[in-house]
Amino acid sequence: MELTDLRYFFNVATARSFSQGAKLSFVSPPAISKAIKRLEEELKTQLFVRTTRSVHLTDRGDILMDHCRKLFRQMDDLERDLNDADEAIRGDMRIGTNEVFSTYLLPHALAQMLRDHPGLCPRSYQMVPSQIVHGLKEGSLDLGFTIGSEVLQGVEVIPLAASQGVLVCGEEHPLYEKGVVTREDLLEYPSVVPEIFRQEYLPALDNFPNERFPRRIGATIELMQMGIQLVFDGAFLGYFPEVSISCQLSHGEMKVLQGLGTGVPFQLNAVVRKGSEPRVAVRLLIETIKSTIEESMLKSCVVDS
User: Fold this and answer.
1) What pLDDT does 274 receive?
2) Which of 76, 86, 169, 292 is the most exposed place for a label (fewest CB within 10 A)?
3) Which CATH number does 3-76 carry?
């Protein structure tokens, strides 16, 4: 089997289309059809079921697809290992992260690394913790960044820091000048709260102490950046890890509201595959993230205890 034919097969199977697979492979549709036919003849089996509207893998096609994933992953690992052999920091680095990191910490750290190592190609994916764990275990991720530790089983967790949760409002909000919030204010002024679609039964993801301070929910969001913007524009109160909004706080675009005391801190973690030494680029990114967190905390506001 030719490796090129396997890549053509992989692209068609991924796109579920010969024409789209051809585009992904940068070849013509007739060329990719010929390659798939050659592969089927060599393996003496049918790999796809074709209809006028769709393309589906056969059972044996599924088996080949699984092996292709493993093969291409091993090839990526080989390239990274060869790069690491001479301490080079280049090539792909696959990162699973949540928004506590991706709104500021991760992009800032990656920008620093890329200035010194332009050959590095970060590939970052927005994920919940369980997806990060799965990606590390199966080898599709090199590194993860997330909060908490409840579901981080079977991987190595590297604690980075703890960031206090803070209740904030934007400059246009009625409580901005006052700078203090009461229990009554939480029921009068609505908050924006993070929830995952179809998992609304889960507790609010922002660690807000709801059991002590009931609040009025004015909107729910999945993307933290959307929540930050809604608070910035004065529409809602919001509760965020202080480290994720340090820029807005330092510029006075948001204000920490006093009066509630402190809640449960957010534990910030890096997560890597258990039992293997992280590659050079991964170790460097973890150290750069640590430095970025420290810099952010130096600029942040202090909450009352």
Assistant:
1) 86
2) 86
3) 1.10.10.10
Averaged pLDDT for residues 113-137: 90
Distance of CA 17 to the CA centre of its chain: 28
CATH domain 87-161+267-299 topology: D-Maltodextrin-Binding Protein; domain 2 (3.40.190)
In this prediction, residue 177 carries a pLDDT of 95
Residue found under tokens 């909004």? 245
Query: Of 47, 56, 43, which is closest to residue 15 (Cα–Cα)?
Result: 56
**pTM reported for the whole predicted model:** 0.66
Tokens representing 61 are 């096609």
Encode burial over 146-176: b for 16+ CB neighbours within 10 A, e otherwise: bbbeeebeebebbebbebbbbbbbbeebebb
Q: Which fold has domain 165-264?
A: D-Maltodextrin-Binding Protein; domain 2 (3.40.190)
Question: What is the CA angle 257-262-264, rounded to 5?
Answer: 125
Residues 66-84, mean pLDDT to the nearest whole number: 77
Domain extents for the chain?
A: 3-76, 87-161+267-299, 165-264
